[in-house]
Design brief:
The chain folds into 2 domains: 39-162, Macroglobulin (MG2) domain (Immunoglobulin-like, Sandwich); 168-287, Immunoglobulin-like (Sandwich), CATH 2.60.40. 5% of the residues lie in helices and 41% in strands. It has one helix at 2-14, and strands at 39-45, 58-68, 76-85, 101-106, 122-132, 138-148, 156-162, 168-170, 183-184, 190-195, 201-207, 210-212, 217-218, 223-226, 236-237, 243-249, 260-269, 277-278, 281-287. Strand 6 and strand 7 form a beta hairpin. It is rod-shaped and about 130 Å long.
Length: 288
């Protein structure tokens, strides 16, 4: 009986454990977020209106668009913007041509105020192209193509009409010399007519009477014009009514090489006139 009790007590001691012992384990989860394709949308040219150029100078033409990247607009690296005549090649900066192709690359879209934080998904593009007065008329396109940290993406485009611009410019003043009463001017006296638009033109010509500072006036029909040197009496009389002149001024191709023509003027001073006599001649572009 004593032996049995001793064995029981020994085993009880050997298999005793603390009541509060706990075991722990851990693991790691991972998820890869792929690069989202940046997309241009809502492209608008010139606020949706046809483009009307400005004679002899440039006109601002706005291109606006929304560029979205679902990773963040901070992912954007550059955005290419092109404004070009339909059918022209305008896919890189080297194609830029004031007649048919305007190009701009936004180099820091991620620093734009519209893209302030990592959770901002859109960059609001707005860029003004300075379009020359001689840009070809017709149907034009604007395309916007964004590039993010991975690669380029398909572009988005919009179409607009660029209107014909019929316009001419002049030098402003023609001195016809000094003559006696009842005599005509001699020599060459010219006014330069410049095509200030984007299409070939002729022009209308008219004149007011020349009012003399001391006395009298010279009626418009005493002033003559021609497109080449001439002697008074062989030219065409001005009148107060615009008259077409077939000058055939071609459309400009380059702003550094203006398209011009000369109009030659002579005048006759009738008796009863004296002093400096002056008055305006008016020239207006018409279709060629």
């Amino acid at each position: 009986m004593r032996k049995i009790i001793a064995i029981y007590l020994c085993c009880s001691i050997l298999f005793s454990f603390p009541a509060n012992l706990a075991m722990a384990a851990s693991s790691t989860a991972s998820l890869t977020v792929s690069n989202a394709t940046s997309v241009a949308s809502s492209v608008v040219v010139n606020s949706g209106s046809a483009i009307t150029l400005t004679a002899g100078t440039t006109t601002n033409v706005n291109v606006a668009a929304t560029v979205t990247d679902n990773n963040s607009c901070k992912d954007l690296v550059t955005v290419d913007v092109a404004l070009y005549k339909q059918g022209a090649t305008c896919t890189q900066a080297g194609h830029a041509d004031n007649d048919v192709c305007y190009w701009y690359t936004v180099t820091s879209p991620s620093t734009d105020p519209s893209c302030a934080d990592n959770d901002d998904l859109t960059f609001a593009l707005s860029y003004n192209f300075s379009v020359q007065y001689y840009a070809d008329p017709g149907s034009w396109l604007a395309t916007v193509k964004p590039y993010d940290e991975s690669a380029g993406t398909p572009d988005s485009s919009s179409t607009v009409t660029l209107n014909d611009l019929q316009s001419i410019g002049t030098g402003g003043t023609v001195a016809l010399g000094t003559v006696a009463p009842n005599a005509a001017s001699i020599g060459d006296h010219t006014e330069t007519i410049t095509n200030a638009g984007n299409v070939a033109v002729n022009f209308n010509a008219s004149s007011a009477a020349l009012t003399c500072a001391t006395r009298g006036s010279i009626a418009a029909n005493y002033i003559e014009y021609a497109l080449a040197t001439f002697t008074y009496g062989d030219g065409t009389d001005f009148s107060g009514t615009p008259t077409a002149v077939e000058a055939d001024l071609a459309a400009p191709e380059d702003g550094t090489v203006p398209v011009t023509d000369l109009i030659y003027l002579q005048a006759f001073a009738p008796t009863g006139t004296e002093g400096l006599c002056s008055g305006n001649q008016t020239y207006s572009a018409i279709a060629d």
